[in-house]
Each structure stands twice: as C-alpha cells, then as structure tokens.
Amino acid sequence: MNNYKVILSIARTHLVTKMKSTITAALGVTFGIGAYITLVCFMTGLNKMLDDLILNQTPHIHLYNEIEPSTRQPVSLYKSFEDALHQIHSIKPKRTQRKIHNALPIIHYLRKDNSVLGVAPQLRSQIFYISGSIEIGGALNGVEILEESRLFNISNYIVEGSVQALHNSDNGILLGAGLAKKMSLYLGDRVQISTAKGDVFSLKIVGIYQSGIADVDNTQSFSKIKTVQKIVGQPNNYITDINIKLNNMEDAVVMTQQLQRQFNVKAIDINTANAQFETGTTIRNLITYAVSITLLTVAGFGIYNILNMLIYEKMKDIAILKATGFSGNDVLKIFMSQAMIIGLLGGLSGLLLGFGLSHIIDNIKFETEALPLIDTYPVNHNPMYYIIGITFALLSTILAGYLPSRKAKKVDPVTIIRGD
User: Fold this and answer.
1) Are 283 and 245 contained in the same domain?
2) Cα separation of 279 and 288, whole Å?
3) Do 132 and 252 belong to one domain?
C-alpha cells in the first residue's frame, strides 16, 4: 500500500512539474470526449426523431387483400395441355373485392392473442376533395380513432382539434394540413368529398393533423370507420386493411408468414415495408460512431506523444529511481498512473463539456412547417453514452500510455548515468 502511495506521489509530481504538457494532454481527451458526447447525443436524437416519425405510424404487420392476376389460368385445366409450355400475355387481374374476407372474425382472433398489443381495422377509399370547381384526388381512411391513437400516436400529430372530437362525431373528418392549406379550410369548416361513383358528402372538419410527411398530409384524411362504410355504401364488415402492433416487434416476420397462410390474405411486416428507411438509419448510425471513434483515437495519439516526450525528458529521473531501488514495474506503474490520471481528469471534463453542449443544442429553436410539434433540435440524453465516453477515455489513455511506460521500464540506469 505504501509503495502505491509513493508511486502516485511521484506520478503527481511529474504531472505538476510539467503542467503545460499535462493540461494539453487532458484537453485532448476533454475535447475528444466532449465532441463524442455532443455528436452521438445529437445524431441519435435526430435518428430517433426520424424513426419515430416513420415507425410510430407503421404497423408491425399489415394485412390486406391484394388485387392481382390469378396464377392459375383456364388453359392449365385442360389435360391435353398438361405437358405443354403455357405463354399467356396481358393477363388481367381477377374480379375480386378489396375487402378482407371474414375481417371481423380475424380481428376478434388477433385481439385474443397474447403476443398482440392491439389491432386497428381500416377502410381505405379513394375520393375527391371538392373545393369550388377544383377536385383534388386523395384518400379517406375509416378508422377506430381511439385505437389508432393508442397504437400509432396519431394524437401527437394533431395540430388543431382532438382525437376525441372525431370519436364523438358521426360526420367528422380529420383533415391533412396540406389539404386544409390548399383549400383554405379551417377547424369547424365543412369539406365536400366525392366518391368514385360520383356521390357527394359533406363532412365537418373536427381536426387537422400534420404527420411531417408531405405526400401524406397533401392527400390523406381520417374519419370513423362507420362513416366511411356509409359513404362507400358498404356493410359494417367491409374492412380493407388490418394493422397490427405486437408486444415484441421481433416476432413480426414469423407471425406475418403464419397469418398469411392461416387467413389467405396478403401480409407484410414492418422490416419489409421499411427496408430502405432502415438502411438509411443504419448508415447514419455507422457514420456517427465512426466519427466519434476517430475523435477519441486522435485524443489517444495526443496522450501517447505527450507521455513519450515526458519520458524522454525524465530519463535522468528514471535512472535515479532505478538506482535507488525502484524496479522496472514500479517505473511502469508510475507512468501508467500518469496516463490514467490524465484520462480520468480529461474524461470527466469531457463529459461535462459534452453535457453542456448537448443541452445548449437541445434548447436551440428548431422551427419547420413539416414538424410543427417539435420546438427544439432533438437530443438523446442517454446515460449509456456517458458511460461509454468515460470508459473509452480510460481505455484509450491506458493503451496510449502503455508503450511509453514500457519504454521507461526498460531504461538502463547505468547507461544514462555513465552518459552524463
């Protein structure tokens, strides 16, 4: 124990007598860790905001009935053509309805499944929004709005009105902000819609939402599923889509295949639906961590250079220490202790610097029409990043200090003293 006290005392003396070099090395770690914390908190916060923007509105599993050509054509039914090569051109889709067959029993079955967080049925209908003499093509989605809000956080994107207002209205509509702007419509106004058959209906605007995705906000609106069934003239079992949220998103791929076989419907999982988006997120994360590691590595090389110079300047001191009974391992511990002290002081200062810069960014105004509910730049204050930062600071300084310390360990005191 006393030996360690002496070693730490000598290490501290070396650092204090070379204060300029010590501060320079510590600042290298400080700015490296500070830049890492700031960058990773900001970039992961930005990625999380983009992920939430897409994934919060995307079901883990989407069931629908896809209209497509039949894979089995009449010619294949004739025995005389069984061994022939069939080449059929311009195959038309078979006549079928867009609705999901037995949708209500399927919904009932899924809601009893313990792995399912919730099920949101939808009725999607192509319509025209009528504004004077102008007709704007778009889509009207019939939904169970309370369940839609619970599972997909639609209430977070409502800039005027509320989810409850749509739930309480039998002829209400939640209009996209882009549509409302194009047609100069406001909360409480009425909007006329026309179906593909030419039937015209008037709905009251009880809410305006802005998802942040312009293509959606310029074409899409929501109403109660019963209201849309009435508009398209279909019974209450007419449902075109079933959106499913699971307790564990990782189960989506397996369950999608199971449901597709079980109910003979088209099913798509969240990974398949958002493959391109996931690729973009992965690339952004790789860039973030690559730049962060580079910053920390540069700080480590700075420590290596400074300790290397310090050992060169302290050759006489090392020789005297060895001549007075200190072993090579003791000398190694002295310089490794210096590296660890620099890493600890620089790392803690870097955490404080990164914390301060992150909070400054978090309070900078960020105003955009696409995201009206976000007031400041997104920052992810995850404590794990601070743990990673201080750990990397210590590891990088230990590694950076090991080679110079090993060199000091091998110094021959007789050669140094004889040389003088």
Assistant:
1) no
2) 14
3) yes
| Residue 335 tokens, joined | 């310089």
CA-based nearest residue to 63, from 225, 241, 249: 241
In a domain, residue 73? The reply is no
DSSP 299: H
Same domain, 290 and 317: yes
User: Tokens in use for 292?
Assistant: 């962060």
Render pLDDT for 180-228 as a digit per residue (tens, 0 to 9). 988 888 999 999 999 888 889 999 999 998 877 777 888 889 999 999 9
Identify the H or E element spanning 204: strand 200-209
Whether residues 296 and 384 share a domain: the answer is yes
> Nearest 10 degrees: CA dihedral of 68, 270, 242, 53?
-120
**Joined tokens for residue 276:** 């391109």
Tokens of 13: 């003396």
Q: What is the pLDDT of residues 90-112, one digit of tens each?
A: 665 555 567 888 899 999 999 99
By C-alpha distance, which of 110, 14, 84 is closest to 317? 14
